[in-house]
Amino acid sequence: xxxxxxxxxxxxxxxxxxAYIAGLDEPDISRSAAVNLIQxxxxxxxxxxCKKSDRIKPGDIIDIELPPxxxxxxxxxxxxxxxxxxxxxxxxxxxxxxxxVHPSAGHESGTLVNALLFCLDGxxxxxxxxxxxxxxxxxxxxxxxxxxxxxxxxxxELARQFKERTCRKEYLALVEGNIKKDFVQINAPLARSxxxxxxxxxxxxxxxxxxxxxxxxxxxxxTFVRCVLHTGRTHQIRVHMAxxxxxxxxxxxxxxxxxxxxxxxxxxxxxxxxxxxxxxxERMTFTxxxxxxxxxxxxxxxxxKNSSKKQ
Length: 311
Fold this sequence. Notes:
Helix content is 20%, strand content 27%. The chain is globular, with a radius of gyration of 20 Å. The longest helix has 19 residues, at 292-310. It is built from six helices and 14 strands. The chain has helices at residues 17-22, 31-39, 112-119, 152-164, 236-243, 292-310, and strands at 2-7, 43-45, 61-66, 82-86, 90-95, 143-149, 168-176, 183-187, 190-192, 200-202, 210-218, 222-229, 268-276, 283-287. By secondary structure, the protein is an alpha+beta fold.
């Protein structure tokens, strides 16, 4: 059984206990699962029994006991993956669009974890049997760099860096419209949507979320941007860009209902990742070019922009 102790921060004033737990990045459990755990006495608030409707405040301590994951047989699968770097402790993968990171309901196979079990010689076990090696995640249709741990010692050290924000994550995105300012910092707390469990929304009772957005190129009806994450909330860049009126092209969840291009997902790419190596202490930087569908849309928009200038 896995144990978690959560210290509620200053952004949680008045939020329901079950909603707050469902919005946590770790452990990653749904609201209905949180309610079930509360009812079984596996979640305690400040050391005592609690109800799903209890309102929390800064300084509250939530203890969560997760029962062992259901028995599953994770099968290694020979699925091509782009390994940017690997050594005895870590592997850095350039994830393709459409690939789910780890098994979950509806995605029991064909995931990055299945592929890693086939091509790597070891993965950490800290995150349980369904998520070996997984320190952080990318959305199914977000492309680019993701780091995995090949042993538990490396996992703990990488997890600490992500928690303390000493790693650096840079993304490239193509977003709708023309962002007028060269630099925008978006500081808007995020929480799970009460109306749609699949969505994250800006909420005064949400958890702190900060994104830096730098304009790289204005392409007339779209803007090519670099985003740097100061926090790592679920769907953070996608929600923040939509919040300021510039959703990612191809984003079917947060973007426009009518898309201009036939895309298989949002044009959001994890392009640069900086970490301190868990064993050597060396600062390491990894980069990955955006995929072809991303670059082809940029090229189309540049051609349209240049053609309009000539007229």
